[in-house]
Amino acid sequence: MSPRRNRQRGGAKPNGRTGLPPSAHWGSTEEWRGENWVVRPVGSGGAAKHYRCPGCDQEIPPGVPHVVAWPQDGDVDDRRHWHTACWKARDRRSARLQRSRNAPRY
Question: Taxonomically, which superkingdom (predicted)?
Answer without folding.
Answer: Bacteria
